[in-house]
Amino acid sequence: MNISPLQRLVEVQQACYTSPIVSYVEEILVDVDLLKVRVYLTEGELFIEVFYNCATDKTSFALIRAGQRVYGADNAKMGWHKHPFDAVNRHIPCPPVTFAEFLTDVEDHFVDL
After folding, report:
1. What is the domain range of residue 19?
2. What is the mean pLDDT of residues 9-34?
3. How many whole angstroms separate alpha carbon 45 and alpha carbon 15?
4. Which of 4, 17, 30, 82 is packed most tightly, with the most Cβ within 10 A?
5. Contact 28, 38 (CB under 8 A)
6. CA angle 50, 51, 52 (to 5 degrees)
7. How many domains does the chain have?
8. Residue 62 · residue 71 · CB < 8 Å
9. What is the DSSP letter of 110?
10. What are the DSSP E strand ranges found in the chain?
């Protein structure tokens, strides 16, 4: 069963609240079916783009630097997969990823970014 965009937003906010690398969260779009959020990090040029569509159950998380994805995870087209830090154009199948898990991955690599 899909959750609502508002429920997904709360998940994102809760994970961000406890993260030492999050500066602030910008809610770009929250409506009946869609959620789009930008999570700004303490390193000024980095942010995480969060997208969720409850009608299609599509979710994507992307770490962006200078307009380019440098890490990502989503369930579009081929099911859950990651775009790893060292090969962002690859699709590595994985189990479903929560935003908290994605943020932890970013935190673990933060000093390398």
Report:
1. 5-112
2. 94
3. 20
4. 82
5. yes
6. 130
7. 1
8. yes
9. G
10. 22-30, 34-41, 46-53, 58-65, 68-74, 81-83, 92-93
Length of the chain: 113
- Cβ atoms of residues 24 and 65 within 8 Å: no
Separation of alpha carbons 113 and 110, rounded Å? 5
Specify the pairing of strand 58-65 against strand 68-74.
Answer: antiparallel
According to the model, what pLDDT value does residue 110 have? 81
- Asked if residue 80 has pLDDT above 80, the reply is yes
Statement: residue 28 has pLDDT above 90: yes
CA-closest candidate to residue 15, choices 105, 85, 75: 105
pTM, full prediction:
0.93
Q: Is the pLDDT of residue 77 over 90?
A: no
